Structures are given as structure tokens and as C-alpha cells.
Amino acid sequence: MADGAPSRIASRFASLRAEGRGALITFVEAFDPDRATSEALLAGMPGAGADLVEIGVPFTDPMADGPTVQRAGQRGLKAGATLAGTLEMVRGFRAKDNATPVVLMGYYNPIYSYGPERFAKDAAEAGVDGLIVVDLPPEEADELTVHTAPQRLELIRLVAPTTDEKRLPVVLSGSGGFVYYVSITGITGTRSATEEHLAEAIPRIRRATDLPIAIGFGVRTPEQAAAAARIADAAVVASALLDTLAGDLDEAGRARPGTVEKVLEQVRALASGVRGARRQAA
Questions:
Q1: Tell me, what CATH number does 168's domain have?
Q2: Catalytic residues
Q3: Structural domain count of the chain
Q4: Is 198 inside a domain boundary?
Q5: Which residues pair with 218 in a beta bridge?
Q6: Which of 23, 172, 205, 282 lies 20 to 30 Å from 259, alpha-carbon distance?
Q7: Which pTM was predicted?
Q8: Max CA-CA distance within the chain?
Q9: Is 111 part of a structural domain of the chain?
Q10: In whole angstroms, what is the distance from residue 11 CA to residue 14 CA?
Q11: Where in the sequence is the domain holding 80, given as residue range(s)?
Q12: Is 153 inside any structural domain?
């Protein structure tokens, strides 16, 4: 993107605001259960209704992930996933789609091993727009942001229900893209927040930032995605899609001929819920 031009993330949220609707952010784990399947899912998600896509970078010690995402990461690692391979996936995606924002989600160790400066340059060149680094606290983020900021890679912060008023400005300092609200305490994919809880939590975050707010961790159904899109600016769905993928693998852990389409059909249903959310509320 040209210097000074809006980022893909900012442009996408601006266009969705103009349409009067929220965003659907979907998730694919790199190389799960193999590179070709994850590439096909990534390529198909925008056409199925995903507005932004997160790509999980498999890691051997995923402390914030629930069982579903852990198993997806294990399958990806078994298939040979690396950070460099994940960037190659993004590069291939960008050859056909230069508009859909792509966010990498993972842990700092692979970035540190790769080399933060080299990673920032390679990620930007591949077409990555944002990063969610689960285990990198704001107090230690400078060692990464000193390299990502010049490359216009946006560091997306996680805000939890336990993030109090004193901590919130610290967490949001230097953040970009959107704010990822972790709607439950604990690990991913285990339970869901109530709509009442979200209606209380999101205004508190809005008072602290102008960035769009996405709700994740526990959003599984079209109805839950619609509720998140009504209350915030985006719904993030990960574990539910990974469960569908895992449930359609054969006895050897391989994707079946219709596996990709089954997951994409689920994306279409989620997208329909998100697109209708604010019309229903009106």
C-alpha cells in the first residue's frame, strides 16, 4: 500500500461502516491439516463472506489456546508449518486478493527466532496487515514495534474482561487496526459470553479508543456472531470453524473431498447472520 494511504484494515472497516454493518473475521490455522487445505480455506473465505481473515501460526506451547486450537496447531506442525511457510501462504493469497485484510495470530517465540526486523520486512512484503501476538505484553512490545511500525504492520491488542480502567490505556497504547475483545476469561473455544455482559463491556472500551472493536473467544453460531456485530464492530469466529474442519477429516487425519466446502458453507451462514444483525435490530 502507498505511504499515507489508509491500511487495508482501516479501509475495510470504513467501507463496512458506510454499509451500516459489522464485520465477520474468520480464522484458519496455517497448514491445518495440510498446506493445500489451509490455502484453499484462506482463498475461499472472502468469497464466502469473511471481511477479514486471521491466520493462526502454529506454535509448540500455545498457552492461551483451548483444545480445539491446540489440536489445529498440532496438525499444522505435523504438516510442516513454519512462520516462513505461513508468510508464503499470505504471499500466494495476495497474488489473487489485494483487498481482504490478513492478520497473523500467534506467539512471540517464532517471531523472535525468525528475527523481529527480518520478520517485519518479510511480513509486510508478503501482504500481512496486522499482528496479534498473544504473549507479548505492552511493556515489552517495543522490541517488536520498533520494526513493525515502519512497515505499517498494525499491532492488535487483546482486551479482557479483567482489564481494569487503569490498565486499559496501557494495553491500548500503540495499538492499531482494531481492538480484540476477549469476551471470556480463560482459554479459547470453551464457552461464550452473554449478550448482557457484552453490552456492558464494549461501551467501556469505546470510551478509551476510536479503533473498531472485535469480539472473539466464544463466538460460534450465526446468532452469536450477529449479537457481536450489533454490539461491537466485528465478530471473530475461530474454534467453531476448526471443529467443523476436524470433524470432517478421515481416519488418517486428512481432508476429505468436501471438507473445504463444508467449512466455507459455515462461513456463509455466519456471514448471513452478521449482515442481517443490524437490520434486525433496527
A1: 3.20.20.70
A2: 54, 65
A3: 1
A4: yes
A5: none
A6: 23
A7: 0.94
A8: 51
A9: yes
A10: 5
A11: 21-281
A12: yes
